[in-house]
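Archive entry: two folds, one per protein. Generate the first.
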Amino acid sequence: MGCAVCEDTGWKAIEQDGVRRMMRCDCWREEIVRRRLADARIPKRYQHCDLSNFVTYPNEMLVRAVAGVKKFIDAFPVVDKGLLLIGPPGIGKSHLAVSALKQAIVGSGARGLFYDVRELLKLIRSTYNPVVKTAEMEVLRPVLEADLLALDDLGAEKTSEWVEETLNLVVNTRYNERRPTIFTSNYEEKEQTGEGDSLLERVGYRIHSRLFEMCDFYDFDGCDYRSPNRPTNATGEDLLKLWQLQRMKKGHHVTLPPRARGSARAQLRDGDGKADLKWPGGRAGSQG
């Protein structure tokens, strides 16, 4: 069905102070947003994600992260930094990243793009030609030039010199051009342990240094929204109870996962046995 206002021309006439002017019709702007959302590569699993359907509960660090995302959304495109959302899998990092990306597109018509880091590297690798790099740059150019880029699961890729150089190109280019980027990662911001379980060890010194200038860091814990014990249409009270149960179970484990082992043991020694412990897992994700 065509637009009754502009008759599908994309222009509408308005009269102001006795002067007739032409301006873009709302349908034209809506079509631009629709196309840019479709081009953003947001996976089907996350296309429903929005801050309005992100359920929070009494969890200070989680609430702080949500507030940080909202502040970013409200300010975009006039932002000095992007976001780095850090925490265990399943706590809603991807949901928050997609929420910010979608709102930036809807609110300002920005050219936004979402990539799982491993998917991006796989795509670049599949087009790599040591002689002719045209195909490789066809993949990289939208990533480098997007008004807002969301890179999901930073650090999950297997480290290698090629991986580090490729990611450094993406991060450094966006850093130099002051283009905001949203990252999510399962790896904590902590000192190196030699076990490859810190953000620094996973991404290398150059990228790690850039991240501090590029992003506001939000490191948080929470309940696993993918848990089979999560009720359908869970309320904040349900999620709080699930989080408390998960923390209690982790506190009673004899063997802790590598990413939580050091800090959790210290908390158990110094605390009352009710420490806020982390848990392991795979990919970062969203609420159900």
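Generate the second and append.
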Amino acid sequence: MVSEPPTRVVVADDSALMRRIISSALARAGVDVVAEAADGDEALAACEHHRPDALMLDLSMPGLDGIGVLRALRRAGGRPLPVIVVSAFSPAQGARAVDALAEGAFDLVAKPRIGESLDGFAETLVRKLRAATDAGPNTAKPTPPVAPASRAIRSSVTRAVLIATSTGGPKALAAVLPKLPSRLGLGTLIVQHMPPGFTRSLAARLDQSSQLTVREASGGEMLDPSVALLAPGGRHLRLAAGGRVTLSDEPEVGALRPRADLMIRDAAQVYGERTLLVVMTGMGNDGLDGAAEIKRRGGRILVEAQSTCTVYGMPRAVQEAALADAAVPLNELPEAIAAEAAA
């Protein structure tokens, strides 16, 4: 039996300590760190020389920074290189991390803070690296056949819109939200898996380009057809009776906080058939349990089609469970959502 060759990675960070922490975590997982780089120019040179499977990239580096590296990689063309941004989080860094996703970064990992365990950081780092390299340059992977979903329909019922997404979600949201009408159904709730420090910047960026008002949820809001509320990183978004939004610091569920399943189940209990769930690109199966509750109560479910997903994980789980009413390519989702929500 021939074993798979180890994943080959370049680690770029201006901190020697951080490079050592990242490289050690990867090495313990059997990853081959082929080079380390202290700035953007060194990172590009290492990638050109070693042709790695992925790049771990800091954003704040002397000379050419992380955003500059991402732009240079895109200009160079050739084989797409998955890039995981490993960054500290402040309001400024949060905004730059969202910029990095817009420039083509695959995903984000928070640097460990002083006093935090390195085990969780290492586990997250390796998990996201595996997802990035598994996705590969062609993000649509062959899958066992599933029953085709029916098409979206124009609804006679006004529905609350629930969006669940993870890896690749910021770019998918940037493609969908600006094309939605200024008033949508009963209101919109979004769970995007991101660490604390990023979601406010993401909401601000989406708000600038959208007809809907997009903002990070603060708790206490009522659903509003003109507003899309984004779950804050590190907190669960819940929905109380009457449609009032609450935020919870309950423990992570399946290593996730926020967990979309919690929001979806709450909304299904409050609105019943007046719910529309949209599950977009992301690894894992968050949204599956919630989708079952939506279906049980007569709501509608759309999933992003495999052909446009960065990672066909979350939508696949829902579709393979025969819960999706329609599988829709990203460019067609805004029209489908508006129709289903009875905007």
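Annotation attached to the second fold: Residues 207 and 214 are 5 Å apart (CA to CA). The longest strand covers residues 32-37.
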